[in-house]
Amino acid sequence: MSKLPWLALVMVALPSMVLAQTEKTSVTPMTEMRGGKPYFEASQSITAQGTVLTVDPKARNLTFLNAERETLVIKAGTGVKNFDKIKENDAVKISYTQRVSLTVTDAGAPEVAQDTSSTHADPEANSGESASKVTHYKARITALDKGKGVASLKGLDGSEFTVTPRDPARLGQVNVGDLVTISYTEAVAASIQKVKPKK
């Protein structure tokens, strides 16, 4: 299964995400009903230390290797004033935010399994964020087991996975065949600081 739905579904299933080796992580969840179907949204703020693998000055992106040896592409927000001083192999501490939402709609005929769009930064805001890429991943509910409190889904790319909602009552608000759209906003850094490499 791809990393995108895994991230989103873990955030739906658990009250918080605890990532080992990160100095600080927090999740702000929000659940409501839209069109008679559940809607979930959460943002995750993380501070982590690692190594810069690559830098894309034009896109203001960097590839970051964290302490768990996982790579992540992070966009430097407009508040990161020292981005031009960040180089490959630098040891850095990054504070960044990820966002994910999950929307359920009645059965329909979606065009693609996964696509992307862009958000636009608010010029009046002082959040340190810039325009970001949003990836939309689509899957169908293939089975519901209300006794166990789980739903089975199959992505339009063929991947299959199960979801355990934090509130099992939500399973009574969806149906087999419903379309689930998971929207993931790329990680956006609010600050990037050079640090001494860990020995």
Regions with little confidence, pLDDT below 50 for 5+ residues: 1-11, 13-22, 118-130
- Trace the largest sheet across and list its strands: 2-3-4-10-5
Biggest sheet layout: 5 strands, mixed, barrel
Shape by Cα distribution: elongated
**What is the H/E order?**
HEEEEEEEEEE
Rounded to the nearest angstrom, the distance between the terminal CA atoms is 34 Å
Structural class assignment: mainly beta
What share of residues are in beta strands? Answer: over 45%
| Radius of gyration, in angstroms, nearest whole number | 18 Å
Q: Give the overall average pLDDT.
A: 77
Question: In the residues, how many domains can be counted?
Answer: 1
Helical proportion?
under 10%
Q: Count the strands? A: 10
| Tally of alpha and pi helices | 1
Task: Describe this structure as you would to a colleague.
The protein has one helix at residues 3-13; strands at 24-34, 37-56, 61-66, 71-76, 91-105, 114-118, 133-145, 150-155, 160-163, 179-194. With 199 residues, it is mostly beta strands. The protein is 6% helix and 51% strand. It has a five-stranded mixed β-barrel. It has one domain (3-194). The chain is elongated and about 50 Å long.
Compact overview of the structure:
The protein has 1 helix and 10 strands. By secondary structure, it is mainly β. It has one domain.
Chart the SSEs and their pairings.
Blueprint: H1 3-13, E1 24-34, E2 37-56, E3 61-66, E4 71-76, E5 91-105, E6 114-118, E7 133-145, E8 150-155, E9 160-163, E10 179-194
Parallel strand pairs: 4-10
Antiparallel strand pairs: 1-2, 2-3, 2-5, 3-4, 5-10, 6-7, 7-8, 7-10, 8-9
